[in-house]
Amino acid sequence: MQKTGLNAVLSIASMFALGSVDGALAEDVLRIVNNGGSVAEASRAAWYEPYSAARGVKIIEDSWSQEYARLRTQIETGDIQWDVVEITLNHMSLACEEGFIERVDWSQYLDPADFEAAGGVSDCAVPIMSVVGGLAYDADVFGDNPPKSWADFWDVETWPGKRGLLFRASTLEIALMADGVPPDQIIATLSTPEGIDRAFAKLDEIKDHIHWWKSGAESVQILATGEVAMAYVWNGRVANLNKTENRNFQYAFEAGFVLGNQFLAVMGGTPNRDRAIDFIVYASSAEPLAAFSNIMRYGPPNARALDFVDPELLETLPSKHMDKAYIQGGDAYVQFWIDNLETLTQRLATWAAQ
User: Fold this and answer.
1) Do 215 and 239 have their domain in common?
2) Rounded CA gap, 311 and 82, in Å?
């Protein structure tokens, strides 16, 4: 019988207790930073607690909202507070370039081929969850006239109310979708000064109606309380809310959506490097990764994990709408955000404050 969820993790705990990546890991504490909220809860149940039990290691958690300055400050001051970092592709690429996270030859510890379908393993990180960001709304509120496009999201006359948007520079990609740019042309458009100006001009149209959110937990909270009429939200957060609170939030996949990965990386300069690698190898292996996906409702980047995923989860993923996907990946995408992340983050903050 196929094993899923926490039982699958616990069933292999003894196996992982028998060995580690270097055979002699002295550190008995591992400091991990995650994105907080339900992601942290799922990580705790699927990874932290089983790993801690298997290895006899105490897990110390921290949370962040991808504030890149927190990485830089630790490196510059030498006050390293984390060993393992949960990080987005944009920040991972920049942090890898700047040496804020460790380069690792992951082929020594896992089979990179298992991750190829989800975009592959980076020199500095392993993908740990495949996340969809898209247009979400309460179907009980909108009834027979739900929003179906990002143009509808921008139409505050037909659908009054606040709009929830992620306070990151990557929101410029959504603005270009709303302005009619096809998903496969977004990064090329954004790579020009005119394209950046076009994205900000589109945001100007609904500036007074934007409710900015900075964490995944906040994104579904403002949707659930009705503070916003609709929002850009990650699919796992919506699926989890529907499951745990019996809500009827829906995703307009047909509007176009962002598909990207979150990663686990080894913090630059950590004295606990071997233990951090050991944890990442554990968390990204098939059954622990499936256990996380079954709780959090995000797709697992390790193809082997699909054998252990709840079939209901597969129905919440956008497999029938991949022609509408904007894939956050590829050389051009990565290089653009390496070159422009900090500048556009500052410009967005200045624009929002005006």
Assistant:
1) yes
2) 35
